[in-house]
Structure formats: C-alpha cells, structure tokens
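Data card: per-record layout.
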Amino acid sequence: MIATYTAQTHTEIVAPNATPVMRKRNDMRDTRYGFTMTELVVVVLIVSLFVLLAVVNLSSLLGRGAFKPQAREFVSTMQMAVTAAAESDRRYEVIIDIPEQNYMLRQISSSNLAEVLDEEIIAQNDFSDDCYVAYVEFDDGEYTNDSRAKFRAGHAGWQNGGKIVLLDSDSNEYSVVVNRINRMVVLKEGDVDLLMPKREEEVPF
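The structure for this 205-residue chain is written out next.
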C-alpha cells in the first residue's frame, strides 16, 4: 500500500506526458536566486552615479532655462522705453544698477534727471545669478561695471547706443545691443563688438 502510493507520486512528478508548464513549475521550485554583497554594492554605485549625472544635467538645464526669460523681459523693458518715446513727446530712461543687480524703467517728468520720483517708475525688476550684469559699454566709449548705467530715449530715439553684457549661471556671455540708429534692442550670444562712431580724421574724404 505504501509502496504503491510512493510509486504513483514519483510517476506524477516525472511522467513523460507532463506538460511543459508543469515541468517548468517543478524546476522553479528547486531554483534559488540571490545576490552577493559585492553585486549589491556595484548595483547601488551604478544607480547612484546615474542619479548624480541626472541631477547635474537637470541643474544645468534649469539654469540655462532661467536665463532666457529674464533676459527677454529686460530686452522688452528696453524696447518698451524707446517705442513709447517714439510714439509721444515724452522721455524715458532705463537705469541699470550694476552693484545692486536691478533695473527700472521710468518716465522722465522733471528737469532734474538725477532725481527719480516714485510716480515716474513704470517697471522695475531684479537680475539674478541666472542672469547677471557683468558690465555696460556705450557707443561713445564710456564703460562701467561698478555703477549705474542709464539709457535715455526720446522722440528721436536713443540718446546713446551701447551694450549690456549679461552672464548666465555657467558664466556664458550674452550682449543686449542697443542700436541708436534703428532703435532696436536685441539679445545676441557672446560679448559682441560695438560699432563705434569714427573720428573725423579716420573717415576718408
């Protein structure tokens, strides 16, 4: 009785007519999976490396992405000043405070240009580490990297042209070029050269 039961059980396990699924299940019961400590350490190190690379790339991407909106907003403010002046008899001024890293647009309403009244201020904003002013150069040769720079616009256009050099979070240079001839304000990559007016003796006649 006992022998018969054992034989039947053995026959059931190794029967040649067993389906592939049954064979696979029986094989899986005898298989043991596991990782050694060395393998686990290697896997953790690889995953950590990928995470670190992803964080670095994401931070760099976010830095570059934060620069353009700020730079475009500044360019729009500059363009707003000269456009509003061209369409009226009013005068406007964009003041770039390099030490404080901010700027403002105001309508000039008094003869004292050094005095900025609260009611004159139209817009003001801050620069940041993602969009930083390095220096300002005017097309008459004036240069500053540690004081206020002022661009004034009247009905005839800009009083002075020039460039405002900005740095992004990776210290890449960009130039906001103010053209007094066509009144345009454009953002260009790099520290571009200004078209300086030539002296009389430099112009052939």
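Known properties of this structure: Confidence is low (pLDDT under 50) at residues 1-14. The chain has one domain: 45-199.

See the next section for split statistics.
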